[in-house]
Write a structure and sequence with these properties.
With about 100 residues, the chain is mainly α. It has six helices and two strands.
């Protein structure tokens, strides 16, 4: 029974990022990020010349990170995590002044 649950979890964990990317055509592209106050990258049109000079891949990577489902939520949580880490490090350094001076 446990092996079956682990297989299901593995399958979900594998396909979830893929589904987050491919759901964009269904929900449509967003134009502006209210969180970052900037225009979001649109999915580029494919052409062989842009594919072979590498510009298509660069634009596609930027647009996927902008247009991916839950990207705003992920960015907010990463920002909160960075702020918490900075706060904890600063608090540690302040409370341990003697240790910091010795270094």
């Amino acid at each position: 029974m446990n092996k079956k649950i682990y297989k299901i979890i593995l399958i979900v964990m594998f396909f979830m990022p893929t589904m987050l990317i491919f759901i964009v055509p269904i929900r449509g592209e967003k134009e502006i990020s209210k969180l970052e106050s900037r225009k979001l990258e649109k999915i580029p049109d494919f052409s062989f010349s842009s594919f072979f000079d590498g510009s298509f891949q660069d634009k596609l990577e930027k647009s996927i990170t902008d247009q991916m489902l839950l990207s705003q939520t992920i960015k907010v949580n990463i920002k909160k995590l960075k702020n918490n880490i900075n706060t904890y490090v600063y608090s540690f350094l302040i409370t341990n002044k003697k240790i910091v001076r010795d270094i």
